[in-house]
Amino acid sequence: MSGPDLSGRGTRAAVLGAGSWGTTFAKVLADAGCTVSLHARRPELAEAIAESGENAEYLPGVALPGALTATTDAAEALDGADVVVLAVPSQSLRANLLEWTPLLPADATLLSLMKGVELGTTMRMSEVIREVTGAGPDRVAALSGPNLAREIAEEQPAATVIACPDADRAAALQAACLTPYFRPYTNQDLVGCELGGAVKNVIALACGIAEGMGFGDNTRASLITRGLAETTRLGVALGAEPATFAGLAGLGDLVATCSSPLSRNRTFGEKLGRGLSLEEVQATTRQTAEGVKSCRSVLDLARAHGVDVPVTEAVVRVCHEDVPAAQMVKEIMSREAKPE
Ligand SMILES: NC(=O)c1ccc[n+]([C@@H]2O[C@H](COP(=O)([O-])OP(=O)(O)OC[C@H]3O[C@@H](n4cnc5c(N)ncnc54)[C@H](O)[C@@H]3O)[C@@H](O)[C@H]2O)c1
Ligand SMILES: O=P(O)(O)OC[C@H](O)CO
Question: What residues does NAD(+) bind to (predicted)?
Fold first, then answer.
């Protein structure tokens, strides 16, 4: 086995980022038997979690397990960690990691929960992690799937994928977060799993926009299906396995995110579709809707590889080029007719 044995009790995990998903996944790890330290940026949030056993800001009403502690001290959170989980907004990962890298335990597994592509570099999160920390490919993994935080925090059954080129490391992570309500599968296709997670946020924005304009299920199903087609085209061009996109990190996450009112991306799109400006929608939420920024990096990535991504292009035009949603629909529906 190439990585440390993370299975069963005794695993120490540090979760960096105490937002919706970081806090929920910290609970999953604790429920699976790990000892978990959750790092929050703001002292008042860490103190409130420690005092009340609840992250009332992001997950009101969810009782956090006793094996989970919260701190603002990154060194304390990372001390002796076998697994380091990264759960901050994608565009802030690099800056955060520059600060945390000197504190990382030498052989810790670095697990990304993030679903985005870095602006400017078009790097996936695992690529940013490797570049900043210098970690080898066997140490870096990503978790992705239909995982709306609130539902998982409420222990509603869900499955996910842990992707790592090192199958032993993926299996160890799988054991570290397996609970009666959370079922992780392993996959060695890191590129496909990460891209599935990042692009589905963009497609969910498109579905939200359609919903906000008053369109129904046919429109959403068409966007999901054509969105999956463009995600797969892009993924295959980057070396991903086509089968990954039919799995939990592809179709699974796409369906959940494009259909759920809990999705921040879909909700953000819905407000745009109702006619609010980008700035007006941004003012309504503090939480991360990754697709709003990542749509531009996904489009850059697609253009660099000569891949046609019309749904993504339409989302970029509405979000960042002031194109009215109705004009976007006209443009997308008047594209050249072609075989499926
Ligand atoms: N919420 C979900 O249901 C869910 C599920 C799966 C994956 N994800 C992914 O997980 C990642 C984190 O999402 P989340 O839902 O926890 O986000 P969130 O907005 O709820 O929380 C983000 C956390 O990052 C911290 N942070 C650190 N540096 C920051 C900075 N520079 N700017 C802003 N916040 C900063 C915030 O304080 C906050 O605790 C995203 O990539 C998201 O796509 C989220
Ligand atoms: O709320 P969203 O849109 O960021 O989506 C959350 C998860 O990624 C769903 O799997």
Answer: 17-22, 149, 264
Q: State the pTM of this model.
A: 0.97
Substitution candidate for ligand 1 out of 15, 21, 148, 160 with most atoms within 8 A of CB = 21
pLDDT digits (tens, 9 = 90+) for 96-146: 999 999 999 999 999 999 999 999 999 999 999 999 999 999 999 999 999
Distance from the alpha carbon of residue 32 to the mean position of ligand 2, in angstroms: 22
Outline which parts of the chain fall under CATH 3.40.50.720.
12-188
Residue 2, pLDDT score:
47
Q: Using alpha carbons, list the distances in angstroms from residue 153 to 76, 139, 261, 284, 338.
A: 25, 27, 16, 23, 44
What is the complex's ipTM, to 2 decimals? 0.98
Nearest ligand (C-alpha, residue 153): 1
| Active-site residue flag, 200 | yes
Numbered ranges of CATH 1.10.1040.10 in the chain? 191-333
Q: Which tokens in the block code for residue 199?
A: 């692009």
The structure tokens listed for 302 are 């697609």
Q: What is the pLDDT of residue 4?
A: 53
pLDDT at 174: 97
Beta carbon of 257 within 6 Å of any ligand 2 atom = yes
For the annotated binding site for sn-glycerol 3-phosphate, the residues are 115, 145, 200, 253, 263-265
Q: Answer yes or no: CATH 2.40.340.10 is held by domain 191-333.
A: no
Residue ranges lining ligand 1, Cβ < 6 Å: 17-22, 41, 58, 87-90, 92, 96, 113-116, 147-149, 287-288, 290
Query: Separation of 105 CA from ligand 2 center, angstroms?
Result: 29
Cβ-in-10-Å burial (0-12, 13-18, 19+) of 183 comes to: middle
Distance, CA 115 to ligand 1 centroid (Å)? 9
- The one-letter amino acid code at 20 reads S
pLDDT digits (tens, 9 = 90+) for 281-304: 999 988 889 999 999 999 999 999
Residue 285, pLDDT score? 86
- Count Cα neighbours of 84 within 13 Å in the Cβ-side half-sphere: 27
Has residue 3 got a pLDDT over 60?
no
Which amino acid residue places its CA nearest to atom 7 of ligand 2? 148
Going from the Cα of 25 to the center of ligand 1, the distance in angstroms, rounded, reads 12
How far apart (Å, rounded) are the C-alpha atoms in residues 201 and 204?
Answer: 5
